[in-house]
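Sharing a chain and its predicted structure for anyone who wants a worked example. Both blocks are below, sequence first, tokens second.
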Amino acid sequence: MSLSLIGFRRVDHASWTVSELEPVIAFYTQVFGARLLYQMGPLDAQQMPRDAAGRDWTDTHLGIAMARFSLAMLEFADGFKVELFHYERPASETETPLSSNQVGSHHLGIEVENLEEAAHVLIAHGCTVLERIEMDSGPTAGSSFRYFQDPWKNIFELVETQASIADTLN
């Protein structure tokens, strides 16, 4: 592995903006088993100090002038964290997350013990689950995948590897 020019140590968290915070927190804690570490807000730029150049706090630190937002940090069982933002102001230009082919889109891959059982649970909780992908050759041989969207259209990928299958048999 090459050395990092920035002193990279590890990924701390991923973050995305959601159209509503409370239902997403409830879903991720119930279905994914995530734990709510903290929740803040609403935080309003109009009530925060300006920087030396006169810019408001949200413009200085988030690049979004005069914002009003709330956030929550969730932690998954393996320690991975997801930070959720909800902006009241300014209004979003989109109502749903970007589709996979859009620059800036994202998805989060989740390794599960049993791909089909996980897919059934997700469907029962309002997710759209796509067809299974089986890999029989190449660097992911023996693995299976299923992409899905949570009820707010955020994109995820279920991953089942030979290691996750072996773990469930032991």
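Comments welcome. The chain has two domains: 11-95, 99-170.
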